[in-house]
Amino acid sequence: MKLILFLLILAVPAGAAELSLTLKSAEDSALAVSNQYRAAKLSAEAAEASAAAAGALLSPRFALEGSLRYVHVVPEIAMPAALGGPKPLSDNWNYSVGPSAYWTFFDGGVLSSGRSAARRTAAARRAEAEHVRRQTVLKARQAYFQLQLALERVYLIGENLQLSLSQLKDITLGAKAGSRSRLDEIRARQETLARRRDLVRARADLGAALREFGFLTGLEPPAGAAFPIDSRLAGRDLGGAQEAELFIKAEPYAEMSGRLLPAADGSLDKALPSVTALENSARAFSALAGGHKAERLPRLTLGARSSLDYPNGPNLYSFIQNSASLSLSLPLFEGGRSSDKRKEHELNAAAASERRGEAALAAEKDFRKALDAYSALLAEQEINIEAVDDSVEASKLAYEAYKAGGGTWLEVESANLKALQAKTMAATANAEILIKLALLDSLTGSVK
After folding, report:
1. Were 288 and a residue from 228, 345, 428, 448 both cysteine, which residue would form a disulfide, CB within 3.0 to 4.6 Å?
2. What percent of the chain has pLDDT over 70?
3. How far is CA 123 from the centre of its chain?
4. Closest listed residue to residue 159, CA positions, set 427, 419, 443, 365
């Protein structure tokens, strides 16, 4: 089922719609539409049902049993004619019906091993479902952050385009008045055209990011999804850019980072679902191996029955028969089946243990790498912030100097471009920081 994650808001240009997206709604919707997560949950429920069924075998079993039999030849006992001649020992029709109870009170641990294996398998399936849940949330977050980065690039290019348009207007007026050269006017127009082209590409990239986001979350975008724009640019003059049918609004960086920041101070979850699943699988195989080992021991089963039987020997009437039984079963030869199955499960247990060790090491590596990358990104972002402040100021000063006749248009153009690049790098670092925090969050066990 497709889920709608957005609100259509009318506070935008006529004929357009606004798509408001939040990180929390993206996570919830991704879980709701994930076939893999639903399948993992169903598999876990099936394993729990199997564990309950395996445990039931340890309890006494009660049943209503009955039999009906017809025999063509009824055995007779020879009797003297004085005593009436031959007497039948039974009847052609025989039946027996009544409740029975059975309890295997000793089997060397076959049934208990099966129950233990089923429970461990159920625990492994639950852990696998939790692992799929975390991965689904992580993918939804990564897609959201990529969408937000694409949105930020559209906004930054749009702002830079507005600046270029304003400067072009001033230079055009100056060129008409003779205070500016025709060459400067052409260069200013070329810069404006370059920003318009950049905006077209950025909007197309935003549309592609929205499609990818929609695939993971079940979002069904409205019309205009192929060429959307940031809602912060609504109503602004973008130099004749193609009119947008869809405006997108995302959650601010500060709100999302505040939610994810605790993961940076957390520690690696020692009970990661991927590791726990393999650990329980190994234990399940070990339990199965123990069960096959126990199959070589005797099995004692106690039975009790109360039934209505017919006939009572030569007496052709029904009677109540109460009985008890004790049966012993001891395998003598089975062609090595039990030992081979035991070896199979022991080897599977060893293999699962090896995979568990590898998964634990891989998780440790991923956690350390993400933490190191996060620390490096924080240090880089401090530089980016300074670079943005300096580049913005340099852009203003270069244009002021140009207007005062103390600089060239090439210096203004270079300063404008550096300011855009600095802001874009800062936005990219913000997205990368959030992605690393999301990964750390999935490895510290705090994903909810």
Report:
1. 345
2. 95
3. 17
4. 419
**Whether 294 contacts 317, CB under 8 Å:** no
**Cα 283 vs. chain centroid, distance in angstroms?**
25
- According to DSSP, residue 85 is labeled S
Quote the CA–CA distance of 299 and 310 in Å, as a whole number: 32
Tell me the mean pLDDT in the region 351-380: 94
State the Rg of the chain over Cα. 39
DSSP for residue 181 = -
Identify the three-state secondary structure at position 270.
Answer: coil
Domains of the chain: 17-73+89-443 (1.20.1600.10)
- pTM check: above 0.90: no
Q: State the Cα–Cα distance between residues 201 and 203, nearest whole angstrom.
A: 5
Q: State phi, psi for 330 to the nearest 5 degrees.
A: -135, 110
pLDDT tens, position by position, 289-319: 999 888 888 999 999 999 999 998 888 889 9
Q: Is the dihedral of CA 163, 169, 170, 175 positive or negative?
A: positive
CA dihedral for 200, 203, 205, 207, sign (positive or negative): negative
Q: In this structure, what DSSP letter does residue 8 have? A: B
Q: How far is CA 251 from the centre of its chain?
A: 22
Helix (H) or strand (E) holding 230: strand 229-230
Distance CA(278)–CA(445), nearest Å, equals 17
- End-to-end Cα, the chain, rounded Å: 23
SS3 174: helix
